[in-house]
Amino acid sequence: MNKNMTFEQALERLEEIVSKLESGNVSLDESIEIYQEGIMLSKQCSGMLQEAEGKVMAIVNKEQDVLEEFIISQVKEA
Fold first, then answer.
1. What is the pLDDT of residues 25-74, one digit of tens each?
2. By C-alpha distance, which of 10, 33, 5, 6 is closest to 20?
3. Model pTM score
4. Which pairs with CB-CB distance under 8 Å and at least 24 residues apart come from 10-19?
């Protein structure tokens, strides 16, 4: 697993792992190995999503503050 993977790359690899496991054409040892990789990728994707959500919320909050300031300034001018 590469920690420098993008979200899309990690998700694509995770889908490959699921497909491999579902096929049943892998040995027990390989199944365990790729299952473990899948768990790590799942955690990595989850972390990336949480980080993205935090960034979006920061943007929304900032825009909301700007909008509120604009509305207040308009009310004071009226």
1. 999 999 999 999 999 999 999 999 999 999 988 888 888 777 777 677 76
2. 33
3. 0.73
4. 10/41, 10/44, 10/45, 10/48, 11/41, 11/45, 13/37, 13/41, 14/38, 14/41, 14/42, 14/45, 17/41
Residue 32, both tokens: 């365990």
Show the 3-state SS of the chain.
Answer: CCCCCCHHHHHHHHHHHHHHHHHCCCCHHHHHHHHHHHHHHHHHHHHHHHHHHHHHHHHHHHHHHHHHHHHHHHHHHC
